[in-house]
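User: Hi! I have a protein structure encoded as tokens and I'd like to know what sequence might fold into it. I'm fairly new to this, so please keep things simple.
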């Protein structure tokens, strides 16, 4: 999150009654840009995390277009979060809408990079509903942290950084040893989640400490980042525990043995001739899949190389506490959920 340099030192208490017809039109465009990707995601089954990336970018484009066209409506004046007036009921929408505004292209691109690289693999484990719940809770936790620590601050605060750090916090709480592609320490490679969090949160803590020691202002809301991370870290486990993928420590604690019999594979049942690579994977799965770790590895290999024999959609590898590791159709588990 950042403090908008455009309006630092001013309080902009613009109410709904202050808006003109053109203002409502501009607001409608912004809302359409924000909500449209989510509607498409729900209807088509596209990743909700990628829909969030598109939503943030479209709103940034629309905000810039409003500025270039010289319209009187100022998105920052009506939609940003201002701690000094954040408690007024008429301005409650700002707690959410501020996350869709950014102070520049570097700001928004930095956030969407984290949301895409961390959010996509996290969504595959959580599912879209739990993912969006954690995203919003991280967003609110970051905003609340900033407001409580800057009660008298009249400066507008914008950005989805609290939510992005919330995704990191959730991943750290649930699957800290997962490896994901991430730019870190001048290298883009697969890093364990705990390493990514250690570096990113360490930098945030250092910046908060350095700014307090030097008693100098900053246009970056570092405390909101820490609040989003900590809030999601604390609340994500109960949410994730109800999903299909066991938490890392729970998966490790499961006793080996007693794996479910494979039986006929989905391609046999559907009367579809599997490709040669898929046939080889299925054969290796039957020959070597009597141990949990081996079966999990071949199930993951199958999910990467095969498609659903019913709809042709992609497959995902999942597991839960009442069932062995299994492969399922990403679009509709009624199509394929095996073994």
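Assistant: Happy to help. Inverse folding works backwards from shape to sequence: for each of the 339 positions I chose a residue that suits the local structure. Here it is:
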């Amino acid at each position: 999150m950042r403090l908008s340099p455009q309006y630092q030192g001013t309080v902009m208490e613009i109410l709904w009654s202050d808006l003109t017809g053109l203002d409502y039109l501009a607001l409608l465009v912004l809302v359409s840009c924000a909500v449209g990707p989510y509607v498409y995601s729900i209807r088509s089954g596209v990743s909700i995390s990628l829909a969030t990336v598109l939503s943030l970018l479209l709103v940034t484009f629309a905000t810039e277009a409003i500025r270039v066209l010289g319209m009187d409506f100022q998105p920052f004046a009506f939609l940003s979060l201002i701690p000094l007036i954040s408690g007024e009921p008429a301005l409650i929408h700002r707690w959410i809408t501020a996350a869709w505004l950014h102070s520049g292209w570097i700001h928004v691109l930095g956030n969407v990079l984290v949301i895409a690289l961390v959010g996509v693999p996290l969504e595959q484990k959580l599912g879209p509903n739990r993912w969006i719940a954690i995203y919003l809770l991280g967003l609110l936790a970051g905003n609340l942290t900033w407001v409580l620590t800057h009660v008298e601050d009249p400066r507008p605060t914008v950005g989805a950084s609290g939510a992005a750090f919330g995704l990191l916090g959730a991943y750290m709480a649930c699957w800290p040893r997962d490896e994901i592609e991430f730019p870190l320490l001048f290298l883009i490679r697969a890093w364990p989640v705990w390493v990514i969090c250690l570096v990113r949160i360490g930098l945030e803590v250092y910046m908060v400490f350095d700014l307090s020691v030097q008693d100098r202002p900053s246009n970056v809301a570092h405390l909101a980042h820490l609040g989003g991370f900590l809030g999601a870290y604390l609340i994500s486990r109960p949410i994730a525990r109800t999903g299909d993928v066991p938490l890392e420590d729970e998966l490790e604690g499961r006793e080996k043995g007693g794996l479910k019999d494979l039986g006929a594979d989905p391609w046999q049942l559907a009367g579809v001739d599997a490709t040669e690579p898929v046939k080889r994977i299925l054969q290796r799965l039957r020959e070597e899949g009597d141990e949990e770790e081996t079966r999990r590895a071949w199930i993951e290999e199958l999910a990467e190389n095969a498609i659903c024999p019913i709809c042709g959609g992609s497959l995902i590898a999942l597991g839960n506490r009442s069932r062995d590791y299994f492969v399922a159709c990403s679009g509709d588990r009624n199509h394929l959920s095996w073994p």
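A useful reference point when you look it over: The first helix runs from residue 21 to 44. Feel free to ask if any position seems puzzling.
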